[in-house]
Amino acid sequence: MAVPTRVVHRPSLAFIMVWESSVSDRDPWLGDVVMNLLLVMPALLLLGAGDSPGSDLERLQGSWVMVAMESDGQEVPAEDFKDWKAVYEGNRVTLRAGDRVRRRGIITLDPARKPKAINTWDQDGPYEDQTVPGIYQLDGETLKLCFARPGAERPKEFTTKAGPGVVSCVYRREKR
Hints:
Lipocalin
């Protein structure tokens, strides 16, 4: 028996769904249900519930000025990070100290985790070609981040009192 093929076209995508004709012959309704689920489920997954990575990523776009920093349980004096900022463009982040680029990386967000998770894959700097696990909180014009060293456990809260190698930062959106 031939295996029927149905092609569903979407902009820039073609989904080819094949099923055994014996299943369709025995229960045509089941074939329709499976087909509808295959078409609807990706849309439901993309919509998701609550925050999506896209919405937080969109809200991150632009320049953020560092206003507070804590490292290894100690507050860092403001003069040590004067003129530091993070610039988000798409899924890329550039950390700057004035005109100098300190680090560049690619970020991924997981807003479904509690607290929300962020990873940066550093393209240069001391953690070049490594993934740095962190958490984030985006509240209006304030961004809180807390990162561990590559290979370490992701922080569970926005403090560095848990041990060495953890850094926590607070940024405010740069005024234009």
